[in-house]
């Protein structure tokens, strides 16, 4: 009787560990569902929109300008932020706010990206904390799931003029 109970317990623990490892790998390497909060990505992503974030792009260095990414916050490593990639390493970016009369520019250093929210007037982004190391990128948002009337791929940046070409 005891042997039977121990056998069932160990089988249950074995399955739990196996499925836990599979779930961990799926969420770490494939992607997951994310609830976005805050106004920094409006109008593209509203407060409490639900999106799907895929994680393969960051592993294969396939992040491009214009992509919306989930990143570990440079200010608070316990939280994630959602921003749009404005510049990749070597790109010239505008580092000033839209309201500034004199515009300043800089180059994104090797191994970094320049991130900005779509809501430039209400976003804490690379204009505040500088370029972000590529290693902090957790995933790329590719699909909006909720609300259903806005289901689909995300639209382009309302701030396309901020992308500089040299």
UniProtKB/TrEMBL annotation:
It comes from the Eukaryota. GO terms for cellular component: mitochondrial inner membrane peptidase complex. One of its GO terms (biological process) is protein processing involved in protein targeting to mitochondrion. SUPFAM superfamilies: LexA/Signal peptidase. Keywords: Hydrolase, Membrane, Mitochondrion, Mitochondrion inner membrane, Protease. Pfam families: Peptidase_S26. It is found in: Mitochondrion inner membrane. Heterodimer of 2 subunits, IMMPL1 and IMMPL2. This is Mitochondrial inner membrane protease subunit.
């Amino acid at each position: 009787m005891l042997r039977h109970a121990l056998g069932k317990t160990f089988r249950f623990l074995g399955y739990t560990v196996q499925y836990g490892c599979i779930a961990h790998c799926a969420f770490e390497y494939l992607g997951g569902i994310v609830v976005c909060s805050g106004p920094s990505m409006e109008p593209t992503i509203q407060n409490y929109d639900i999106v799907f974030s895929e994680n393969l792009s960051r592993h294969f260095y396939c992040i491009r300008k214009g992509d919306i990414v989930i990143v570990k916050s440079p200010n608070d490593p316990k939280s994630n932020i959602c921003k749009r990639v404005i510049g990749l390493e070597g790109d010239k970016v505008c580092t000033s706010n839209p309201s500034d009369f004199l515009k300043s520019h800089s180059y994104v250093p090797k191994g970094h990206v320049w991130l900005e929210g779509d809501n430039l007037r209400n976003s804490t982004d690379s204009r505040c904390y500088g370029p972000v190391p590529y290693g902090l990128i957790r995933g790329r948002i590719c699909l909006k799931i909720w609300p259903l009337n806005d289901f689909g791929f995300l639209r382009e940046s309302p701030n396309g003029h901020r992308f500089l070409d040299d």
